[in-house]
Amino acid sequence: MEDNSSFFANRTSSTMETLQEEHNTKLERTRVLKNQIKDVKRQLEETKNDNVYDKIEATKNLSEKYKQLREEYNLLLGQKSGTKQLN
């Protein structure tokens, strides 16, 4: 009986460690994405001073990048909580 209980305890411990590592990885990725989102927002604000053509192109590119980052960020949040969250 003791062998079975120690087997399950080790298995549970291993599973918990794996889940903790996945959680930590997702938390770190979430932090990185938050910082990238802030940087893109800042860059979008800075494009207000560029000439018209450059401003349009930069805004379009940064908006697309921002959208992609937000989607990935929201997917990660949804995976962490078990449900998809909306802004």
From TrEMBL:
Q: Which UniProt keywords apply?
A: Coiled coil
Q: Which residues form a coiled coil?
A: 27-79
Biased composition, class Polar residues, residue ranges: 1-18
Annotated region (Disordered) at 1-27
Tree of life domain: Eukaryota
Protein name (Swiss-Prot/TrEMBL): Uncharacterized protein
Species whose genome carries this gene:
Lactuca virosa
User: What phylogenetic lineage does the species belong to?
Assistant: Eukaryota, Viridiplantae, Streptophyta, Embryophyta, Tracheophyta
